[in-house]
Amino acid sequence: MKNMGNMMKQMQKMQKQMQKAQEELKEKTVEATAGGGAVKVTAAGDKRIVDIEIDEDVVDPEDVEMLQDLILAAMNEALKKVDELAEQDLGKFTKGMNIPGMF
Question: pTM for this structure?
Answer without folding.
Answer: 0.75
